[in-house]
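Table S2 (continued). Query chain:
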Amino acid sequence: MRPTGKLHLGNYMGALANWVKLQDQDAQYDCYFFIADLHALTTDYADTSGIAPNTLEVALDFLAAGLDPERSTIFVQSQVKQHYELPLLLGMITPLGWLERVPSYKEMQDNLATKDLTTYGFLGYPVLMASDILLYQPQFVPVGQDQQAHVELTREIARRFNQFYKFDGREVLPEPKVLLTPSPKLPGTDGRKMSKSYGNTIQMTDAEAVVRQKLKTMVTDPARVRRTDKGDPDKCPVGDLHKVFSTAETLAKVYDGCRSAGIGCIECKGWAADALVQILQPIQERRASYSTAMVKEILKDGSRRARTRAEQTMHEVHSAMQLTLTDEVGR
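Corresponding output:
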């Protein structure tokens, strides 16, 4: 996850909640989660002042969500030097056309038209992303459907590497499979997808009063102009929040009350706020239990563990590419 500031409920439901579930399946998955500060440079290279403080904020949100440094490796990308090394080697074999066809390449240039993204780093970020994955020789990458294209490119790069190079007669980089994780539709306060760039988020750190105030201003079903107008929760952003966070009992009251005009939007928003506060309270309590020093120590230890694992891969990569002199001299 890129360090662009404190995380919001869209980040939590889209990724973090799923990561915690995977972590808790101890016997099945050995999990690596990192803060992608190098990726932040692909778009924010002109002002890097926020990267370090935002890295700590994201780490706090990781821990607050329930990621456990005893059961998962939590680290900072730039502190594992192999994340610089493997992209260079994979970049040597990745065709330019593969990068130019990545769906988000043109999309991000259009969305961030005020920034100059005609850089080597921005064009090559899918190689960096592929390296982030392949360094740990994983079987699975947990992503939502919108990220499948990136994983497929990773598989293609791994396949091309394995065609050229072998280590003791075997393939070095496995082609990871997509592990699809649920990513429910989560609208922001303006009805669009919850996103920092839209300024419509509910943050994981928002106090109860802030959550309730944001919900009060949230857009609703446009058909409900007056209190007596009937509405449809399936056409209402607040209804979408209820589907994700509310109990079946509350959701039934929402559908009945909205469609019959038996409840007003203010009451419905209050119920949604109740559900959000109940989700956020334990998250915020966990966050408050960590000091800055504790977080830095967790990241330091996680980065050390990640370096050890990544170096195993790089030894095989170097040997396969017959760059063994580097290993002999010392890395």
